[in-house]
Amino acid sequence: MRTSSKALVAATFAALSFAAAAPALADEAAPPSDITVTGAATIASQYRFRGVAQSDNKPVVQGTFTIAHSSGFYITTWGSSASAGNSPINIGGTEIDVYGGYTHGLGKSGFVFDGGLYGYIYPGATVGNYWEVYGSLAKTLGPVTAKVGANFAPAQKVFNYNFTSTHRSNLYVYGELGAAIPGTPLSIHSHLAHTGGGFDLPKPFFDYNVGITAKYKNLALDASVVGTNMHQSDFANSGLCSGAGSATAVNVCSNSFYRTTKPVGVISLTASF
Description:
Elements: H1 2-25, E1 35-44, E2 48-49, E3 52-53, E4 60-69, E5 73-81, E6 94-105, E7 111-121, E8 130-141, E9 144-153, E10 170-180, E11 186-197, E12 205-216, E13 219-228, H2 232-236, H3 247-259, E14 264-272
Antiparallel strand pairs: 1-4, 1-14, 2-3, 4-5, 5-6, 6-7, 7-8, 8-9, 9-10, 10-11, 11-12, 12-13, 13-14
């Protein structure tokens, strides 16, 4: 898995370097293109997805690359190093996401719609591969932006490997609120969401994050608190740990899982191109 993670990082930075250099090679007299290419590279203290640790609470490197058309259609790839081996959340060491959709303002309402299809690919743990349909509405009023959205994963093979839930689909709903602080390079953001269905873990759960971002040119430094409402007792009483054996073994198991969901501080530095 170490080799695949390094290859992902190298490919991401190579692609981002090309994207950053491309405008300098363009003909200055050429008309603006309907297609834009953007990207970013991130170093983070850990990777949390919907409040749950995906890197065994260890640092990660991440990258993203987007091709968008002026009509509103776009396609994006995103990748991250991730947990593997003996981690409670073992996703094979690497995650690669591919998603595409359409975003556009709704008339003069000020609302912006975004929707499409999202695929999660785990080269080292392919039984975890799955896809979702997503959609959201956002509106900005002055420095404040509000957003609501949902991701739905219909019945697919990944749910056949979840032994703690009888559900064969999953619904993730969320709300977000953010604001720029006038006269400063700072902005604040918040997120609250609910997972219900095949990805319940020990129970349907809420996840949240709240943080502050400081921007300088193409750099963004973010500090956030991320967590869920799951507790050690939820795991101890769930199918995830009920077969661990003795009371001591169950306690070790529940502690291990709870460590991936308890509130933590996450720091990240992102360079955009």
